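The following record pairs a protein chain with its ligand, zinc ion.
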Amino acid sequence: MAIRNILVEGDPTLLKKSRRVKRFDDRLASLADDMIETMYESDGVGLAAPQVGVLRRLFVMDTEGEEKPVVFVNPEIVVEEGVQRGVEGCLSLPGLVGVVSRPLSVTVRAQDLNGDYFEETFTGLAARCVCHENDHLDGILYRRRSETVLCTREEYEEEMRRKAEIEAAMRQEGDAPHDGAIPEHAADGKGHDDISEGEVDA
Ligand SMILES: [Zn+2]
């Protein structure tokens, strides 16, 4: 096993579409091993082959934190249900986060390292991660899907704090007509209560 170098945004490889894996050999197994080690080393919950410069349809994931990584070869999302809005990050866009809507649950059909097919349904964080990694295989970075301008986690938390303060102030005012002194962005109608917290660098 070896730690591989993770490409960062700006590298054109990250914007290319990956090809299907055809050979299920030792080289593939060794690539998957390296990716798993690299993912853990970087505190990520997922890592896709193009992120280490290999344009093949393969990603690894461990959202449980129990060192039970799953390898997906030639994955296809066959069912998507519901929607979740949440904070997302990416090992190829280090230090940044953005808010992305993803399906609440996905069913994936993929092959394992022996080429055998399996089908599994994932929800919550795991569903988010599957979608994020699958996007990498099509050359899509989450910046393209983010509903907010990407910022650092500290900036994001500061923004959430400010928003919460404004919302609390508005609640205190009750239904009394206000004098227009409330900043516009406090009334954009986008509640953030539904945003799930959790680190998703993937
Ligand atoms: Zn990523």
